[in-house]
Amino acid sequence: MQPKELERVARQIRLRDLQAVYAAGAGHIGGEMSVIDILTALYFRVLRIWPDEPKRPERDRFVLSKGHTACALYVTLAKRGFFAEDELSTFLQPHSRLNGHPNCNKVPGVETNTGPLGHGLPVAVGMAKAAKLSGADYHTYVVTGDGEMQEGSNWEAIMAAAQFGLNNLTLVIDHNRFQQGAALSDTNDLAPLRPKLEAFGWEVTEIDGNDMEQVVPALEHRGSLPHCIVAHTNKGQGISFMQDRVEWHHKVPNKQQYEIALAELSEAL
């Protein structure tokens, strides 16, 4: 797909995500809205995947380290054909496999269980290292939150990736400037992220992570070093009253707010 087509799909995914979170009465809608453009570009353009063969050995690997935004991943996977879109109505319901955090034992297309922050990048480094050891040519992508980058385990993984020369690894930091309860700047401010990653031996690209014209080429870049994309995004992207508001990390819209958001996202289709 070309960027304009990807933008249209991303708008559809945002709308379905809103509907699923509202119906479930729970979710992490702010961070889901910020990361959806990246997920759309990955699954509808960049990743080498086979939805009817989710474990095919040649597939690229994707790890959603910020696993609390699972609903956005589920909507993307369903729209890409990994499972029926009708199943999205079971999100967070009793006995549903669409839990609040992705489970690789239950949901096709999920590579590893995530949720405890700081775990996804170390696992992705292991995947990329395994490809080097076995001679496989798949590429590994991982998306973290910016608040998540406060975890020391991520920086150990970053050091290891540089040491092992993992140029088959792309880290995307969803830099929406907010985490649970506060702004990044008021918690443990890691910004600017670029010089820190470069000091650890990574190649770094900074982009507007909600602009598909910038997202696609950054994800498709290949170089000689591990690659980090610092994606500057907006929490609650696409919904006016949610954007850049910390309370929408895990707040659920009431009926009036839902109708406003539904109208805004529907108008953009």
From TrEMBL:
<dbReference type="InterPro" id="IPR005474">
    <property type="entry name" value="Transketolase_N"/>
</dbReference>
<dbReference type="Pfam" id="PF00456">
    <property type="entry name" value="Transketolase_N"/>
</dbReference>
<comment type="similarity">
    <text>Belongs to the transketolase family.</text>
</comment>
<protein>
    <submittedName>
        <fullName>Transketolase</fullName>
    </submittedName>
</protein>
<keyword id="KW-0786">Thiamine pyrophosphate</keyword>
<feature type="domain" description="Transketolase N-terminal">
    <location>
        <begin position="8"/>
        <end position="248"/>
    </location>
</feature>
<dbReference type="InterPro" id="IPR029061">
    <property type="entry name" value="THDP-binding"/>
</dbReference>
